[in-house]
Amino acid sequence: MEHFSIIQALCRAAMGEPTLALRKQVERLKDALAKDGEEKQAASLAGILATAERLKEMAPSRIERSRAGLSGETLGRNTPVPVDRETAAALAEIIFPSEVEGAAPLFNSTVTQAVGTIVDEWTDFEALATVDIMPSKTCLIYGAPGTGKTRLALWIARRLELPVVLVKLDGLVSSFLGTTARNIGNLFAFANRYRCVLLLDEFDAIAKVRDDPQEVGEIKRVVNALLQNLDVRQNIGLTIGITNHPKLLDSAVWRRFEVQLEIPKPDFEVRKAIAAMFMPPVTAPDSHLRLIAWFTEGSTGAEIEALVRTYKKATTVREDDRRGLLDTLRQFATLNAARIQSERRTLLFDGPANLFRAMRDDPILAFSMADIGEIAGRDKSTVSRQLGRQASKVDGGMNHG
């Protein structure tokens, strides 16, 4: 190749701080040279790639550099966890980063950006320390059940390459409330010793309104113990509380959390993305994903996943038992009535013309006649005729009135 020495120098300079896309292009060039018989030049690029990989392995990552700035011990797989003195039951479960699903949970852009700032604070721990600022050490994640709160907390821990000390707070409450306060103290002492994410799930089990007349006075001391331990949480990890019932939390509890992140139910585009994420290995047409997203308005990610499972079952059974998408939606709506909005459920079981008209006229779906026909298992001329008859009935009714 003419001027290869210049190309070689450019590749060597660029691979000093390579991106994934850049590395891919250098690999493509190497393969192309090898295919053209330029073995020496291909070998030179292979050497540059190998050197860059060795340097990458030797250089500490941002996260590794940040963790090096943290005090605290490393939590290992054989580290004993604290137990309840009365029952000897473990007070927590340890989850390591390699055990957490790598795919990021799907949220709207606002939530995604907010989560990114939490991760960035901890990965830039050293930079913040230079201006005497510490990353947020407490975060409350709240929202409806099934919106992905626990999955998000685990994913944050994976990004930070920190193990999770997972505590189900409803299981922490002992019949001896004095024991519960001691268990809380032991858990926080454990979390303050090791670099970790302390994940307090079902947070409202303990952090109830202290003025609740249904609770005995001792529960107030338990809540106070929790608040005091949150106050002294060490800067060696993040504490995340999760609740489905934010209204049950004491106002003093809210003040202890520097970050208060609400996870909303997914919008149309996020619902479609969630359906696509759970669909493999089945391949669904884009129109099917859009209709699933449309019919699951107001649903959570967990409910969309349940519908996708129903869809996958319906498309993989014997040919004569397979259901079309509309029949699958009707089946799901019958077995999961509360998961589909009443208006959409009525359309499913109403005459096809009303459903077809709604699918055609909705600006989010913007279905063509061909789209509707494919979903309904009819040709577009049949769909058009049904819509025409429906329009004639409407017009006739108006004229008669």
TrEMBL record:
GO MF assignments: ATP binding; ATP hydrolysis activity
UniProt cross-references to InterPro entries, sorted A to Z: 26S_Proteasome_ATPase, AAA+_ATPase, ATPase_AAA_core, P-loop_NTPase
Gene3D superfamilies hit by this protein: 1.10.8.60, P-loop containing nucleotide triphosphate hydrolases
Region described as Disordered: spans on this chain: 381-401
AAA+ ATPase domain location: 135-267
Keywords: ATP-binding, Nucleotide-binding
Family per similarity comment: Belongs to the AAA ATPase family.
Name of the protein: ATPase family associated with various cellular activities (AAA)
Organism: Neomesorhizobium albiziae
Origin organism lineage: Bacteria, Pseudomonadati, Pseudomonadota, Alphaproteobacteria, Hyphomicrobiales
